[in-house]
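SAMPLE LOG
Freezer: B-3
Tube label: C17
Construct: single chain, 411 aa
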Amino acid sequence: MVELATQAHDASRQRHRDPHSLVREPLRSRTSPQFDELGGIQRFVDAPDAFHVAILSRLVRGRSPPVPVPALSYAVIITHLALTSAEYEAFVRSPFVDELIAGEEGVSAIVILDSPTAITPPGSLPLVVCALGGEFGGVGPAHADVVFGAGDVDAALATIGRSPIAAVALSVLLRMSTFLPVDSGLAAESATYSLLQAGPEFASWRTRTPAKGAAPRESVVRVERCEGRLDIILDRADRHNAVSRQLRDELATALQIAVADDSITSVCLRGEGPSFCSGGDLAEFGERVDVATAHITRLARSPGRTIARLASRLTAEIHGATMGGGIEMAAFAGRVVAHPDTRIALPEIDLGLIPGAGGTVSMPRRIGRQRTAALGLTGRVIDAPTALAWGLIDEITEVGYSAHGNGALLI
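STRUCTURE (predicted):
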């Protein structure tokens, strides 16, 4: 293995000196696959119009030339590896793995082509380790970051390619946050979120979508008390109850009522209008340039932490668009009831961010790390039956809307 590593390292350096190397930069005019050996890796690069990239490792000593594998296509050129499980094992154990994953041309994702029962944990390596399963969010080896169906790989790699820093940050974070206590997990998530807010991917999105700010209102959260029951209603229906700073702060205050009063035996969290909560208010994203202070504020005023504390007494009633922070907070509840029209997604990846309202803590506790990653790495929308099958919600209830357009569940 030492001899192999030395040969691979020497080959890598020789290739970088070779002016005829086909992998000096992405090939954008080729119509048929081209390849080059770089440190024992065969890299196949195809033109963007064909959208094919397949990379096979030859780090295993004495292996014969690789056999063809199904091409993986996507709309944005990124560097990823398509490896067998044996090649993956050799890759993550290689003494030169840092050279292969570092820099602008480094590897950001690995797709394992076969179906191993177990793989070596990637640890803190900044990679998205994808396994192929029978379906989106299916079953795969325990230490893979995410499991996709064969038909989902293209779209997933395209999304990862648009925001590779956020995708890698989410994958690494989920490897540890699943096993942390709630408070520690929230702190790790918030720190990662703040780092990404200062990163180039979010800056690019913010340049394309300038912050407009949200005008303050008299109140955006209603609280109703009837004996031992406390109803907390998000009341910003014209914005689909998007989480502004005002809504976050008022919700945190309302939840503290139940924490302080043991005579409240049940708490119901619901939303007014067509949606429970569409996630963070994009009009405010990026307004606070001091991401360190934003991290401290996020920890101090965390509705998710308080919902977790009240979980045994709290039911979240969701409907319509339940996106981003909406499902992240609701998943902390001891019981989640959904209207059949509920649509759930984690769209933060398209902004160059990760879930920031507790989703990397609450959702893995309900649906596991890999399904949380599947949602977070793709922004894919799932319906209520899928959410029920996964365990993200506990019940689907057929209910109607009031004559005044109240979208809250009527139970």
